[in-house]
Amino acid sequence: MKRICVFCGANAGASPIYVETARTVGTQLARAGITVIYGGGGLGLMGAVARGALEAGGEAIGIIPESLLRFEPPPDCLTELRVVASMHERKAIMVELADAFVALPGGLGTLDEISEVLTWAQLGLHAKPCGLLNLEGYFDLLMAWLDHATAQRFIRAEHRAMVLIDGDLTRLLARLSEYEPPRASPLIDSSML
Question: For 16-28, what is each residue's pLDDT tens digit?
């Protein structure tokens, strides 16, 4: 893995551990020689990830829609900043550039981004690993919902298994690098028809 896309909040969140960990994520990725691909903003967790990578001598590539530039001004020292026309274009470029995806705490935008790349993986549009860094149990309720949707047969077990989760970045990165995508299977359970 040479490039990891990090999805995370443009806000700092309620706990100082979120920003501290986001900066550490950027630092650890840079030290591992991994370029950070992210949403381009300089605030909140997004800014902390980028600064952590850059301060550790790594690279951070931001992709930001023009409409967000005044709300989420990018850091001055990004390796590269791509200003795009829409959120859809932003996500498409992130998927194209990244070898894997990691979500940190965030809001609806973060949920949208990780959900879309997981959906694309489920559809076989890419075979890149997707992980959640579960800080302080942040994603526990999401995982419970995924388990419920799987039990209710809206998500196949092999697709549920595509969501890698860990509270430790080093372990999560190891799992991402060992990831094997599920073999193609029908998205619709024909026994329900």
Answer: 999 999 999 999 9
